Amino acid sequence: MEPVGIFDSIKVLMDEVETRFYKELQPRTNSLADLIAHISKYKGKRLRPALVLLSGKCLGGIAPQHIDLAVVVEMVHTATLVHDDIIDEASMRRHVESVNSKWGREISILFGDYLFSRGFTILSALDSQVATLLLSQTVNVMSEGELIQLQRRYDIGLSENDYFDIIERKTASLCAASCRLGATFAGANRKVSDILSNYGLKIGIAFQIVDDCLDVMGTEEEIGKSLNTDIQKGKLTLPLIRLVNQLPRNKLETARELIFQHDAKETKNAIIELLTEHDAVEYAFNTAKKIIKQAQEEIAPLPDSPYKTTLMELADFIVTRRS
Amino acid sequence: MEPVGIFDSIKVLMDEVETRFYKELQPRTNSLADLIAHISKYKGKRLRPALVLLSGKCLGGIAPQHIDLAVVVEMVHTATLVHDDIIDEASMRRHVESVNSKWGREISILFGDYLFSRGFTILSALDSQVATLLLSQTVNVMSEGELIQLQRRYDIGLSENDYFDIIERKTASLCAASCRLGATFAGANRKVSDILSNYGLKIGIAFQIVDDCLDVMGTEEEIGKSLNTDIQKGKLTLPLIRLVNQLPRNKLETARELIFQHDAKETKNAIIELLTEHDAVEYAFNTAKKIIKQAQEEIAPLPDSPYKTTLMELADFIVTRRS
């Protein structure tokens, strides 16, 4: 669901990004027309482009390059969603069928590669290689994060620190990069760019924690993507790690079996009961709220502006959203 | 199999590329160590790095950037191999198990993304965006080529022109880009860079035709990768297109059934018999030889040098290789 109203201060720019996004994807061959028409139905939150634009606006100004960068971060994000949905065998994404479900994994792999490379072509038209460097490193770190997560599936020994390392890589790194690019291309110095990047990293971490809570507790109708994939795929997320840490040793094996049963739908209620009993989802939400507060403290020293206010509100939205 | 002796004129540089390739992939996390150790067993022909270096040498000189570019084209190529092996469900690659077979498709998808992004990080350290632009466009065209091929599986109406369009995109474009980069970074003007790029495009097309012939006729032991995947996956390649074009209308349906039977191993001999009867593989080899001759004519006007001689010999090697 879009964060209604929150991006009003940059509405015109966000519309420009939206138009450019699809213009850049105009297919040269028929082979891609259906795929691109399909992802144009993906109405995402557009969080990452908003971070580029708000960070720029916050620090004085938006250059035409900010639109390019906003388009590219959304394209890179879409590419990772297309690849992730193959891995998670997710059938729904942003309220419509996933590319994987509609066209199969072979096409999804190639379409993801297409989106990544298209993004880097846009970056190659910029004056400097700053964005190419940062975003190629970010995609690298994101794929590493997903790899570590895969390798540690069904590993009940995964600690909170391991979990934070994974989500920082796979999700928060692109939010941090979006903020850093917005700041840097507005002429911010290193120190100020670091502040924005830290803000982005923190809201990215909180965003993923909330996502992981909603994966356990939400409904697909509200959230618009396949849920319970984490449990089905053996991913230990913060609520489950908390649960495991709270359980006495002699109950661990039972919990493990319950969590990783193949048909998670049948055992879902039992798991939710356990999570509730141990306040594990509440714990995860509270952790996210603490991190959001830190994010807001990061940018507090910046000069006041409507855009800084939006960044503050956006941080709150991340932990209050229920879809 | 390495083209023994052919790259002697650039041996020192090729060794430098090999060392740099693995140095650039040094993993920061344990998660990647096994994967990288595995692909270090992939002893490929290193055709694309050789094209970068020979094109540069041919036109006067090699800059340190040529080593970077040679490393990147091989990394991009390796990324596409890792993704292609998922699509083809190939179990063998370069005489060892494919990443897909050893680690499964989820890890292969992410490892491919890791390799692509690592390549672009190396490019982002260069002085200009020329290489970022060309290689991102090339990856884009390659993924489009593979997409078109997928969409036209089991399509007996695929023409020779359609086939050439597909292989130009999926294979030849990276060979052309390798030559163009080698030339451009040696200071060649547009006209000379175009000559090298055309040479690369043509040997790339011929290379793929020969690959497709070997997929039908070769043995896995000699060639070191999974074979007959084209027929199993419904890909019509030049020998089969020729066969289809030669058959009378009333035999088409029988041929179609034979070609696309699910267990191709059983019908393999029947197909080879049909191909032989219609000289279809010979036709494909002859087509490749003609294109190689055109490639050699492209570079004939360049000043003579040991490196030009190597490019001439390399072209011959491509159609005489049997593995």
And the CATH topology of chain A?
Farnesyl Diphosphate Synthase
Strand count, sense and closure of the main sheet of chain A? 2 strands, antiparallel
How widely separated are the two ends of chain A? 6 Å
Unreliably modeled segments of chain A: none
What overall geometry of chain A do the principal axes of the alpha carbons give? globular
Strand order of the largest sheet of chain A: 1-2
Q: Structural class of the helices, strands and pairings of chain A?
A: mainly alpha
Oligomeric state: homodimer
Count of the domains of chain A: 1
Average pLDDT confidence of chain A is 89
Q: What percent strand of chain A?
A: under 5%
Order of helices and strands of chain A: HHHHEEHHHHHHHHHHHH
Number of helices, counting only DSSP H or I runs of 4 residues or more of chain A:
16
The CATH superfamily of chain A turns out to be: Farnesyl Diphosphate Synthase
Q: What integer value in Å does the Rg of chain A equal?
A: 20 Å
CATH hierarchy, class of chain A: Mainly Alpha
User: What's the architecture of chain A in CATH terms?
Assistant: Orthogonal Bundle
Instruction: Tell how many strands the DSSP assignment of chain A holds.
Output: 2
